[in-house]
Structures are given as C-alpha cells and as structure tokens.
From TrEMBL:
Subcellular location: Cytoplasm, Cytoskeleton, Flagellum axoneme
Family: Belongs to the DRC3 family.
GO cellular component: cilium
Alphabetical list of Pfam families matching this protein: LRR_9
Matches recorded under InterPro entries: Cilia_flagella_integrity (IPR050576), Leu-rich_rpt (IPR001611), LRR_dom_sf (IPR032675)
Keywords in alphabetical order: Cell projection, Cilium, Coiled coil, Cytoplasm, Cytoskeleton, Flagellum, Leucine-rich repeat, Repeat
The protein's name in its UniProt record: Dynein regulatory complex subunit 3
Entry superkingdom: Eukaryota
Gene3D superfamilies, alphabetized: Ribonuclease Inhibitor
C-alpha cells in the first residue's frame, strides 16, 4: 500500500518540468528492469509502447502541472509525489489506475478523480488540503493517506468517510484535527471496518469500547 510517510524534504529550486514522451519513458517502472543492466533498461524503456505502460514514477521531477498523459490507458500505478503540483487535473482518462501517489505537493483541493473508479490506494500526504471532498465516486478505495494536511474538523471528515465500505487503512495524523483528545476513538467507533489507523493495527477490544461510547 501507499500508506506511508516520507521524510520531509526541500526541493531544489528549478524550472518546472513538463511531462513529455522523453520524461514518460525515463519514468517507466517495471519488475523486469530490476535485473537488467542500465543499457538494457534504456533499451526496454525506449521500445515500450505508451499504451502498454503499467507504472510510472515521476517522483522528484519538479513537475508543476499534471499533463500530457494521453494514451496511457493501461496505467495502473502512478507516482507524482515530491513535486510542486497545485491542482489535480488531467487524470480522468486513466480509468484503470489503482494506485496514485500525490504526496508532498502543494495541493489545496481534492478534485479531478471522479472517473478513477478502480482506485484502491491514494496518498495525498503532506499537501495543503483543508477539507475531505472529491472522493465520493471512489468506492473501491482501500487505503487513504491524508496526513500532514490542514484538516481542522474531525467529525465532518469521519462522517464523510463512513460510506467508503472498502476502506481499511486511514492516515490523518499531522492534521490539526488529530490533536483532538478523542481523535483515535472517534475514528474507530465510526469507521467500523478500519483495520489500520495512522500505521497502527486497530485493537478489536478498543473498537467495542469506542462503539459503546459513541453509539449512533
């Protein structure tokens, strides 16, 4: 899963990078390349058809704008972490995407994800998000990392997540709302199928106590 937090970093000041075919090919990730020499990796990436690419890692590429991903219909895994992205956009056609990492960017609003119905793992860790919204269509979501943002109100966020019946892992640590003394107990009481909260395995005994405390 992508329920993880990377260490804080400082991106070097650089001109924004544009996603083009050269960068796409550079950022192809495959299981096969692990065993290959650098020369063979380059050859593999150069000859891969764009419509066959399953995974791309654009981590630390100074990307400001998500664009030019047309034709990548087979993409299952997309890493856009550690960039300077401000808007979630131009992803709607990637309908086979299951794993999306947008952590460590400058995103303020969750949007542009409505057609990604197969998405199971989503990281928005360490952005500037103030409200949980824009996720309603993602009913397959299993793992959501939204920690280190600016979400202040706990219960609106918890109630928003209740309809997500496949959600098993949630990270909201590092938001102002996580300082609420009842933060953990309210989450496990109201999100009844959650297995992990902030990297911790949920204790079934504590769930029962929490449910009794916050009956609804």
């Amino acid at each position: 899963t992508i329920l993880n937090s990377m260490p804080p970093h400082a991106l070097k000041l650089a001109d924004p990078n544009v996603i083009d075919e050269e960068l796409i090919r550079k950022c192809i990730t495959t299981v096969e390349e692990i065993k290959l020499s650098d020369e063979k990796k380059k050859e593999l990436k150069a000859h891969t058809e764009l419509h066959d690419i399953k995974a791309l890692s654009f981590s630390f590429e100074s990307i400001l704008k998500i664009d030019n991903l047309i034709g990548l219909h087979s993409l299952v895994k997309l890493q856009l972490d550690n960039n300077t992205i401000e808007n979630i956009e131009n992803l709607g056609h990637l309908v086979n995407l299951e794993w999306l990492d947008l952590s460590f960017n400058n995103i303020v609003v969750i949007e542009g994800l409505d057609s990604l119905l197969k998405l199971t793992d989503l990281s928005l860790f360490n952005n500037k998000i103030e409200e949980l919204k824009g996720l309603t269509a993602l009913t397959a979501l299993n793992c959501l990392s939204i920690g280190n943002n600016n979400i202040k109100q706990l219960m609106p966020a918890v109630h928003y997540l209740r309809p997500f019946l496949n959600l098993r892992m949630i990270n909201m640590l590092g938001n102002p709302c996580s300082k609420d003394p009842e933060y953990y107990t309210r989450i496990i009481a109201h999100l009844r199928d959650i297995v992990y909260v902030d990297y911790r395995l949920v204790d079934p005994d504590k769930v029962q106590v929490a449910k009794e405390q916050y009956q609804d």
